Amino acid sequence: MLKRSTALEYKLHRSVLSKADFVAYIQYEINVLELIKKRRARIGYQFKREDIEFPIISRVTSVFRRATTKWQEDVQLWLSHVAFSKKWGTKAQLSKVFSSMLAIHPDKPSLWIMAAKCEMEDLDSSESARHLFLRALRFHPENKKVYQEYFRMELMHAEKLRKQQHELELAKIDLFSPEILSGKLAEVVYRDAKQKIKGAEFMLSLLNIAAIFDFTKELQDTILQDLQKEHTDDSVTWDFMARRELEAAGAPELRSAQGRASDTNRREERCCAVYEEGLRSLNTEPMWTCYLTFCLDRFKRKTNFAELKQKVNDLVFVLLQKALSSPVPAISAALKETYLEWAYKTSGYKKARKIFKSLHEHRPFTKAFFTKMIQIEKEQEKPNMSNLRDYYERALREFGSSDDGDALHVSLYHEWILKQALPQVSKLS
């Protein structure tokens, strides 16, 4: 063992240094530490750690420091040093490693988040975590992930203080202010984030984080009010508000299956009412897609009540008919593929082909509309080659001369040639 260790250490003093030699030495010493740990557990000997493990840990730390100084750009090397320090090093050592790494790689938000999480969760230092997040925001003032994790950290901090406060109340000691305990620091983070980063999706991500904690009702209401006030022009807002109706708790007295089904039906109707309101104020393809996706999700769910399923099925049909007659080209074009797929899944091949025939002259189209029909035809036990030829030719006529039509033309034509050629090859063989 000593001979092997000496040989590996010797390579670290060559005039031309190799990263692989450093990694090999570190891995060898870590393996030794693991063996010592197993042997201690086996024989129950827990003494003289300062004479056995500590010198090895010190050597590995020193080698890591040399390696990260030599190859500063290697993030994985830094992360290996972090992992080693977490398992074998001291708390002070871990903070130093993160500090050195961030001085070299301040442009990587994920490293700032990792360092702050370590301070919060491993080192139990909310103050250090907050300091790191604030520094991270100076480098990345509009990074969504940094704000999300900073927001989460402040809520975790408030939750920890609430637990401590509960214990102190038993001793009749009042240490923390009600504002801190209710998550006001997280609200400050939210308001700052809202100014820097626009969009309903980001606000909803913060709302979902807040919903994890049971003391944030006031904060959730604030975010929800801002969402409804500032982002009614975003389909994400309407989608969230509609689905929220579905998640509303049912009446507790509804114990029968029929009663629960009626309650589900009422909640679905409230969802649809919100979607309809959204369509009246936001007649866009994403809004239609949100509504239809909701209906299709409800149609796929398992239920013992056929009337509920049929009602949703009828609603999907009505919605698709409305969407296809929309004066907004993007809406009618985007939802043709959805209509085709829905018809195939609910009524089979013949219905899908009938829908295709009824739509294939109603422009505008998307390439996905034709490729979906081609896919459906191929899934049949005996695909109709005449139909396939018709689908390919229609797609090529429609998109063969567009800007990106050349690539589509080559792709479809190549596939079609193979379809035509393979049966002939089979006959010859």
Automatic annotation (TrEMBL):
Xref: SMART domains: HAT
GO cellular component, one term: Pwp2p-containing subcomplex of 90S preribosome
U3 small nucleolar RNA-associated protein 6 N-terminal domain span: 2-59
Stored SUPFAM superfamilies: TPR-like
GO MF, one annotated term: snoRNA binding
GO biological process, one term: maturation of SSU-rRNA from tricistronic rRNA transcript (SSU-rRNA, 5.8S rRNA, LSU-rRNA)
Localization in the cell: Nucleus, Nucleolus
Keywords per UniProt: Nucleus, Repeat, rRNA processing
Pfam families hit by this protein: U3_assoc_6, UTP6_C
Membrane spanning stretches: none
Chief place where the protein resides: nucleus
Domain U3 small nucleolar RNA-associated protein 6 homolog C-terminal: from-to ranges: 321-404
Family to which the UniProt record says this protein belongs: Belongs to the UTP6 family.
Protein name: UTP6 small subunit processome component
Organism: Pygocentrus nattereri
Lineage, opening ranks: Eukaryota, Metazoa, Chordata, Craniata, Vertebrata
Gene of this entry: UTP6
